[in-house]
Amino acid sequence: MAVRIGIDFDNTIVCYDTLFRQVALEQGLIPADLPENKGAVRDYLRTAGMEDRWTAMQGDVYGKRMNEACAFPACSIV
Known about the structure:
Layout: E1 14-15, H1 17-26, H2 38-47, H3 51-62, E2 70-71
Antiparallel strand pairs: 1-2
């Protein structure tokens, strides 16, 4: 019997806020003053009618650019 273990990276181990903003800026999709926040990028693109660009960006970030995302700082349990 094989055991499978899943790990949820998105906002559990890895924070994608900076990377999503960076990619959106590189692609000229958002204004430079948009907050460094994945949700802000998503909401902006959806409001601007660019849901398809958001979906494509997720594939890029969660795929080939995942190594550019930062891990949350380590924390200890007392």
